[in-house]
Design brief:
Rossmann fold, Arc Repressor Mutant, subunit A, alpha/beta, 6-stranded parallel sheet, single chain, 13% strand
Length: 221
């Protein structure tokens, strides 16, 4: 399989170099471009069309949030993984709206970053545990304000699938836990999205968290 191609944007050169070294220890990950500001990051993403862009939020010239917003037009297949020291509510909401797939704090361990890149590349949402709690609360409040009525009832198996996803399991692990195929898990997710009226796996997971199907204190995405 070809390596996951990554553009890395971080204005602190020492942090950027350390992150690149962590990633390049793994043969399935390749850093194809590095940027020290948001404008350079957007240019690299548009030119190189990477699989994943790892971005800080507070980049000079153009914020990481704005880079994510504009990335959708220049490189729609590139997934955004935010790696930052900031977990302010306003940043979280802005990134949800912009379309970031993952959000890690810089306190994450090296192996967590590597797995996050792989998961984001597969289109699976990644949220740092501290962020997961905040996002679920914020998203839950927002959804309550706009809901027109109760979501169509999920089957017991569909609920099992979304709860396992909220606990951090990926499709393969969910399939193994439930004794079904990965394709069946994907089919369940398609049904879940339609019934809940959401457009992504991230939103389905956050719906489960906001409804307290999974304990925010005990479970982690």
């Amino acid at each position: 399989m070809p390596a996951i191609r990554i553009v890395l944007a971080e204005d602190h050169a020492l942090v950027r170099e350390g992150t690149r070294r962590i990633l390049e220890q793994h043969p399935d990950l390749e850093v194809v471009g590095e940027a020290g500001d948001g404008e350079q990051a957007l240019e690299l993403v548009g030119r190189l069309q990477p699989d994943v862009a790892i971005l800080d939020i507070r980049l000079p010239k153009l914020s990481g949030i704005e880079v994510v917003r504009r990335m959708g037009e220049q490189s729609p297949k590139t997934k955004a993984l935010m790696l930052t020291a900031y977990d302010d509510d306003d940043y979280i909401l802005a990134l949800m709206e912009a379309g970031a797939t993952g959000y890690l704090l810089k306190t994450a361990r090296a192996n967590e970053l590597v797995e996050a890149v792989r998961s984001v590349h597969r289109g699976e949402p990644v949220l740092h545990p501290a962020i997961a709690v905040k996002v679920a609360r914020l998203w839950g409040h927002r959804r309550v304000a706009v809901e027109q009525g109760p979501a169509e009832e999920l089957t017991s198996r569909e609920r099992e699938v979304v709860v396992l996803a909220a606990k951090g399991l990926r499709n393969k692990a969910i399939a193994e836990t439930l004794g079904i195929s990965v394709r069946t898990v994907e089919g369940h997710f398609n049904n879940i999205l339609a019934k809940l009226g959401v457009s992504s796996r991230t939103e389905a997971v956050l719906y489960a968290l906001s409804r307290r199907w999974v304990s925010l204190e005990e479970e982690r995405i």
